[in-house]
Input
Amino acid sequence: MKKYLPYLKLLFTRSQKITIDAIPNGSIIDIGGGGEGIIAQIGKNNVTVIDKHQGEIDEAKSKSPTSKWVLADATSLEYESGYFDNATAFFSGMYMSIETFEKVCEEVYRVLKNGGEFWIWDAEISENAGLFIIRLSVTLPNGKKIRTAYGSKIMKRSVTEIKQKLLNVKFQVEVIENQEKWFFLKAVKIS
Ligand SMILES: C[S@@+](CC[C@H](N)C(=O)[O-])C[C@H]1O[C@@H](n2cnc3c(N)ncnc32)[C@H](O)[C@@H]1O
Output
């Protein structure tokens, strides 16, 4: 029975609607961008996707062949400081411990140009036990709809924690939009 629990959970999880009207301009580093490759599908050759699992890259690569697909841990990036215009993370924070997330924020801050923005979409996890699953129906700027689900064993996560980690590494948090089970947050590097 236990092994069927995630599937049962998925069956009874209501889909969350997300409409992405835009992503940042210029060069983008997308953290944890494998799987569906949502940001790469929108930004195409402007996007450098970082993912630490080759399988996730392989799954997404064909959906945006002109993006750059890089197998790497985002806690340690090979790019020089100020290399990218902007950064994104679409439901990848929920796959990291909060300590790892802070290290990723440090690296993103470093590789962004001054004035660069970090756009984050992520799950608000209030449940305490077992596997958390979020089901999404994502509408891209061109109207394409992608239905997907992301699951994580992270116990709890809140936008307040994420905001605090961003502030710790000197980002300015400019926008927070709270939805039922997820949030969108925009932070800016002003050094
Ligand atoms: C489910 S995906 C998020 C959804 C994805 N952005 C998309 O467009 O479908 C989460 C990804 O984060 C990646 N990830 C987790 N920790 C990471 C890290 N420290 N560095 C790079 N990628 C990481 C995982 O390998 C996984 O592919």
